[in-house]
Specification:
The protein has 414 residues and is an all-alpha fold. Helix content is 70%, strand content 0%. It contains 17 helices and no strands. Helix 2 runs parallel beside helix 5. The N and C termini lie far apart (66 Å).
């Protein structure tokens, strides 16, 4: 399906939805089924903009946009949809980046409900982009400060009750520092492999240690090891990112071996590359489930990929995909199931390198260049990178005094 056709289909579907909403609101009495669904989506979007310390705002949104209560009000002809919209616009004004103040202000001048809801969703989409592009810096300073101070205060209270509440954090940072020192020491060795002068590696930068420590959280053994105390509240978020990166690693590896094996021309067929990526993504969707078996999934993926490659080669007039090549490609795809597979290890290493570079960039530049071989999954990788860096930077803002104190002891030579 061409991009133009996809856009047209999307426009038709969206128009039908808004037309249906308009009809429902024009009924006598009005029907609010579609409107309530929209309020639910708006509620989830607003909550997604909040940081952990925004307790008061979270309570406000949850209380005012209580869907069960709204449904009851609708059933009893007591729902004031304009009042809900007024609250939503006010909350958007509180949470949006200053650059969006004008767009939010314009919403107050729209009096008809359907155009107002359409405009609200349009501004919310802009707010999502702001959050992705600028991470925590897009949040208004007073809200950020409030959240940081709240979380730090709560953790300090815990620390006073349990003085050993930084034990796992200390171990986590020590291991990250040791990793970096060992890496630098190996890099500093002369070509012959012997030590030069000192048996100890150079002392790493404290910021580099913290960044490396956060990267280690993306490879954490959650079943066997306690999570560091300062990131415990975000453990589920790191687990989710870890799974997304594992899926991306496997997806990237499958696409790399496929495009390497098939005729070079088909890799440049944008429609085919996107179609193939979507097929593999769908077959990896259930990776988070305990019942998921990666080997079985890769067997299915191998069969499907070979069919698609053969079809594309035929349509493009290339030499047919031979049985020998098909057997080799299926074997290479199956091999990706092992964490020790060379292609999978390359993908994994390059993904971590990209995340480390982005984390170290401090948002002063655009996203760093995606390493070779990761082009087909660039969009997905950048989305994960934005979420990861936002999570890390916020955690640093809250807990930096504790990290600085620990690292000042770890990084001092005896």
């Amino acid at each position: 399906m061409s991009t133009l056709l996809e856009k047209r289909v999307k426009e038709i579907v969206h128009k039908a939805f808004w037309d249906c909403l308009s009809v429902q609101l024009s009924d006598d009495p009005p029907s609010y089924d579609h409107a309530i669904k929209l309020v639910g989506e708006i509620k989830e979007t607003l909550l997604s903009f909040l940081l952990p310390g925004h307790t008061r705002l979270r309570n406000q949104i949850t209380e005012v946009l209580d869907l069960d209560l709204i449904k009851q009000q609708a059933e009893n002809a007591a729902l004031d949809i304009s009042k809900l919209a007024e609250f939503i616009i006010g909350m958007m004004g509180t949470l949006c980046a200053p650059v969006r103040d004008e767009e939010v202000q314009k919403l107050k001048n729209i009096k008809e409900i359907v155009p107002l809801f359409r405009a609200i969703f349009s501004v919310l989409d802009l707010m999502k982009v702001d959050m992705a592009n600028f991470s925590v810096s897009s949040i208004r300073p007073h809200l950020m400060q409030q959240s940081v101070e709240y979380e730090r205060k709560k953790f300090q209270e815990l620390l006073e009750k349990q003085p050993n509440s930084l034990d796992f954090v200390t171990q986590w940072l020590e291991e990250a520092a040791d990793d970096l020192m060992n890496q630098k020491y190996k890099n500093a060795l002369p070509a012959g492999g012997g030590a030069s002068g000192s048996d100890e590696g150079p002392v790493p930068n404290p910021v580099a240690v913290q960044n490396h420590a956060y990267l280690r959280l993306l490879r954490w053994d959650h079943l066997q090891r306690p999570f560091p105390e300062t990131v415990l509240m975000d453990q589920s978020r790191f687990q989710e990112l870890q799974l997304q990166l594992e899926q991306l690693t496997i997806l990237g590896a499958v696409l790399l071996v496929t495009f390497s094996m098939a005729a070079s021309g088909i890799a440049s067929q944008a429609n085919f590359a996107e179609k193939l990526k979507m097929i593999v993504k769908i077959l990896l969707t259930d990776m988070h489930l305990p019942s998921f078996r990666l080997k079985d999934a890769l067997t299915t993926i191998g069969e499907k990929v070979c069919l698609e490659v053969s079809s594309c080669l035929s349509q493009c007039g290339f030499a047919p995909f031979t049985m020998d090549k098909e057997i080799v490609l299926k074997g290479q795809i199956q091999a990706v199931a092992s964490p020790d597979d060379p292609i999978r290890r390359i993908m994994d290493s390059r993904i971590l390198t990209f995340l480390e570079t982005y984390l170290a960039s401090g948002h002063q530049k655009p996203l760093p260049t995606v390493p070779g071989g990761l082009g087909p999954v660039q969009t997905e990788l950048e989305e994960v990178a934005v979420k990861f860096v936002r999570l890390v930077n916020y955690n640093k803002m809250v807990f930096s005094p504790y990290y600085d104190a620990i690292l000042s002891k770890i990084l001092v030579r005896p």
